[in-house]
Structures are given as C-alpha cells and as structure tokens.
C-alpha cells in the first residue's frame, strides 16, 4: 500500500484538478498555472528529493494556495500539505501529513509526473515543459526500490 497518493484530472484552460490522500485524509483542489507552474515545481522537487534536499511546491488557487513541503530525513520523507487562504505564503495551516519511506515517496511523485507527461496536454490547457530528465530519474528510483 502506498503511504500517500497524488493524482490529477485533465486540466482545462490553466486549471488542474488535483487529489492527494494520506493517513486517511483526502484533499482535493484545482490549481492554477499562474503565476507559477506547479507541475514544473513538482518535477524540480523530485530531483531535489533524489539528491536528499528538501523541496516545496506551490499550488496556487487564486487567491488561496496549498504548499506541499517535502523534507527528507535519512531513509524517509516528511510529506506535509499546508493551506493558506491568501495568495501569499502566510498563515499556513497543515491539512495533511505523512512520513513515508523515501523510495515510496519518490515513486509516487515520479509516477504522477510521468502520467502527466504522457497525457500530452497542450496550450491553452496547460503550459509545455518543465519535465526534462524524468525517464533517467525513473530508472534510478526503480533500481533503488
């Protein structure tokens, strides 16, 4: 069983429905691709985690937002999702949290990004790019799993 799950539905005109589940809690939201691209940020976060570095992903809701904090600690990763009602990253409230084996977290994030990449969404629904290097990183993650 996965420690947490992350999934999406097809984006529409810059809005991406996302679902995250961990520790029996489910959080669903629709994130914007403005002012940032959270998919590109998630890809960068995956590379950071693979190097043992902490990372964060900003899922902007206009005006609220979710901030996904990913913090490695030895062979595990702390996955925390915070909500803030304004567009600034202030007054964050934790809405979901789990500590899971690092390889499982990496695999969940990698699979999410590969599914997104293989879906071939185009403008105006979602911007292209930001997913370079996923295939090579996937081989490394699978070899270590």
Structure, explained:
The protein is of the alpha+beta class and 145 residues long. The chain has one domain: 2-Layer Sandwich (Secreted effector protein pipB2 fold). The protein is 28% helix and 37% strand. It has three helices and seven strands, in the order E-E-E-H-E-E-E-E-H-H. It has helices at residues 38-50, 102-118, 134-144; strands spanning 4-8, 15-22, 25-32, 55-60, 65-73, 76-84, 93-101. A four-stranded antiparallel beta sheet has the order 4-5-6-7. A three-stranded antiparallel beta sheet has the order 1-2-3. Helix 1 runs antiparallel to helix 2 (102-118) and helix 2 packs antiparallel against helix 3 (134-144). 26% of the residues are buried. The mean pLDDT is 89.
Architecture blueprint of SSEs:
Layout: E1 4-8, E2 15-22, E3 25-32, H1 38-50, E4 55-60, E5 65-73, E6 76-84, E7 93-101, H2 102-118, H3 134-144
Antiparallel strand pairs: 1-2, 2-3, 4-5, 5-6, 6-7
Strand content: 35-45%
Unreliable spans are: none
In the CATH scheme, the class would be Alpha Beta
Number of domains: 1
Query: Main β-sheet: number of strands, strand sense, barrel status?
Result: 4 strands, antiparallel
Task: Count the DSSP helices.
Answer: 3
Trace the largest sheet across and list its strands.
4-5-6-7
The outline comes out as globular
Structural class: alpha+beta
Count of distinct strands? 7
Compute the gyration radius: what is it? 14 Å
Second CATH tier, the architecture:
2-Layer Sandwich
**Average pLDDT level:** 89
Distance between the termini: 14 Å
């Amino acid at each position: 069983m996965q420690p947490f799950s992350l999934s999406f539905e097809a984006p529409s005109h810059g809005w991406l429905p996302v679902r995250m589940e961990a520790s029996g809690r489910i959080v669903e939201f629709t994130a914007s691709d403005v002012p940032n691209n959270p998919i590109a940020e998630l890809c960068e976060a995956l590379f950071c985690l693979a190097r043992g570095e902490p990372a964060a992903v900003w899922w902007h809701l206009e005006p609220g937002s979710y901030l996904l904090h990913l913090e490695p600690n030895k062979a595990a990763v702390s996955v925390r999702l915070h909500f803030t009602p304004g567009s600034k990253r202030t007054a964050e409230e934790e809405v979901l949290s789990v500590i899971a084996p690092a390889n499982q977290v990496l695999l969940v994030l990698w699979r999410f990004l590969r599914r997104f990449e293989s879906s071939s969404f185009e403008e105006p629904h979602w911007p292209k790019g930001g997913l370079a290097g996923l295939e090579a990183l996937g081989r490394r993650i699978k070899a270590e799993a």
